[in-house]
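Problem statement: downstream parser choked on a complex file, so we are re-checking the raw output for the adenosine-5'-diphosphate run. The parser issue turned out to be on our end (a line-ending mismatch), but while we're here, posting the original submission so the record is complete.
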Amino acid sequence: MQVWTDVSQVPTAWGPSVVTLGNFDGVHRGHVAVLTRMVADARAVGAHAVAVTFTPHPAQVHRPLEAPPLLLGDADRLELLAGTGLDAALLVTYTLDFARQSPEEFVRRYLVDALHARTVVVGRDVRFGWQNAGDLTTMRRLGERHGFTVEVIEDVRPDDADEPGGYRRWSSTWVRELLAAGDVRAAADVLGRTHHVRGVVVHGDARGRELGYPTANLGHVAGMVPADGVYAGWLRRERRADGTPVPAAERVLPAAVSIGTNPTFDGHDRRVEAYVLDRTDLDLYDDEVALELVERLRPTLRFDSVEALLERMARDVEDVRAVLGLPRA
Ligand SMILES: Cc1cc2nc3c(=O)[nH]c(=O)nc-3n(C[C@H](O)[C@H](O)[C@H](O)COP(=O)(O)O)c2cc1C
Ligand SMILES: Nc1ncnc2c1ncn2[C@@H]1O[C@H](COP(=O)(O)OP(=O)(O)O)[C@@H](O)[C@H]1O
């Protein structure tokens, strides 16, 4: 998949294209269903499939105080978009200047002149252009003027959509709610994969090693951090600080993940840290790692003594083994 960060980077001879617009935060099952179908349609008519997407999230520009936490960082979002088979993604830097374009200007510059859109795929509730002035009717009118068709995508429903109790459409909002409640299992059902966060390993309070549980502390976490608590998961070593490759057998390691302020030690900062089971020999400092969160085991607790915390951590580790299907120690 080609990635352009500005419309000027689109090759002049690019196209024809089938284009869709969206934030695609989380690249959840609804997004994937729409995008894979769009890719198939584009292939069938010999066109390129392109997604136009934005960074930062428009809500962060227009309503920074109310903007939702993003499920994924840009790198992960692009990687998952690439996985759907898209030929290209145009990652537009979203600024107030960009937002000031009229619906007509945006469509002409981006969809028509640069991407040579033959088909534009949108949801029924699409809004675009300054003050969200453009809607589906506007897009259809612009399509007639500029020679593209508009395809409206209906909700792709979960298989059990007709179950009693009704259904809820797959959405980024739903995933955020589930993560805020710590329900990473249910979030995985909506995402179609295990949720992960990513960061570079930084120095913590140098206590973990003394306790017998060294933990890799994540700095600058990308991706939505779920509710405080202890989680079973996997630590994926993605990039070593010195650029040397990680041996295949050392890439994905079982981990007990702690998210919280370490109240037992009167901590204040919220930490995201992971203990790799049965290892004390790792050096993860400055490595980029992803933490896949499979199941929440318990809330974060304030223990009366370090011994009580250690006893509980030993149990956590056994719970992690059970969740991940690893043999007991
Ligand atoms: C599996 C696991 C469970 C944990 N549970 C708690 C907890 O319930 N309460 C708490 O205060 N700290 C908890 N911690 C965090 C420890 O307090 C923390 O790892 C320790 O203070 C080391 O900090 P450091 O990495 O900054 O050196 C947990 C850590 C792990 C790995
Ligand atoms: N099993 C392990 N899980 C996580 N990190 C480990 C492990 N073994 C060694 N390490 C290394 O030890 C560091 C954590 O040690 P710790 O004493 O908790 O110090 P700090 O919290 O100050 O970084 C990690 O960043 C990593 O480089």
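For whoever reads this later: The two ends are 44 Å apart (CA to CA).
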